[in-house]
Amino acid sequence: MNPLFPIVHEDDELLVVNKPAGLVCHPTKGDEYSSLISRIRLHLPENATAHLVNRLDRETSGLVMVAKTDETARELRRVWESREVQKEYLAIVHGRPERDQGAIDAPLGRDEDSIVAVKNRVREDGAQALTSYEVKRPFQRNGASFALLGVRPETGRKHQIRIHLAHIGCPIVGDKLYGGDENLYLDFVKDQLTEAQRRRLVLPNQALHAERLSFAWRGGITVFQAESEPWFDAFSGSGELPDLVWPDRPA
């Protein structure tokens, strides 16, 4: 396996990787391994072109496409912006939705009451946002109820899946910002999470995985799929959890 990231697909024009949870897409103040794009540059030949076609939150794992030419980047960004890309995620949530499948139709905009600048919320004057979901498997761990969901964002708003699932009372496990107490995020940023706070979060990273992408491109249907990480599978299944490594605070 590539030590920089799992490779899903690679040819002369396109690289598709399975981004690990806890890795930012863009450079920070860290070393050359601290962001996805810097690792991509280590993987590609010197001075090679690398355009991120899509991005994921730091703590979200899964599929990221990287164009190796300017023309491929333009083509794929047009496809992405056309809203013709079918995106499928896996999410582990607290509790269980009232219905086994449904759609969350709730507009999103900035959360002006929050001291966290990047936080959004459901608001009547926000941008239209729609998320479909289905319950794949409810389960229990240590007496607490959880559910594994398949999720499809029908629109592409910032933090859409995380906000919508929290909105229906089923926040994503490990979500520091939308899990009900934004002090978890603030203390994480300050590198001050207590053991009690870590127990509340349950998992070091939010349990959200970009599993599948499908879209029409160059006369055919292109599909990419990426496996979720071992900790994700172990928590949502019956296996024992591996040793959990808590991420460093954001740079």
Structural overview:
The chain is an alpha+beta fold and 251 residues long. It folds into 2 domains: 82 residues, Pseudouridine synthase (2-Layer Sandwich), CATH 3.30.2350; 127 residues, Pseudouridine synthase. It is 20% helix and 31% strand. The two termini are 28 Å apart. 35% of the residues are buried.
List keywords for this structure.
two-stranded antiparallel ribbon, globular, 31% strand, ten-stranded mixed sheet, 2 domains, Pseudouridine synthase, 6 helices, alpha+beta, 251 residues
- At the fold tier of CATH, the topology name of the largest domain is Pseudouridine synthase
> How much of the polypeptide forms β-strand, as a percent range?
25-35%
Instruction: Please indicate the count of domains.
Output: 2
H/I helix tally? 6
| Rg estimate, integer Å | 18 Å
- Report the major sheet: 10 strands, mixed
State the CATH architecture of the largest domain.
2-Layer Sandwich
What's the CATH H-level superfamily name of the largest domain?
Pseudouridine synthase
Shape designation: globular
Distance between the termini: 28 Å
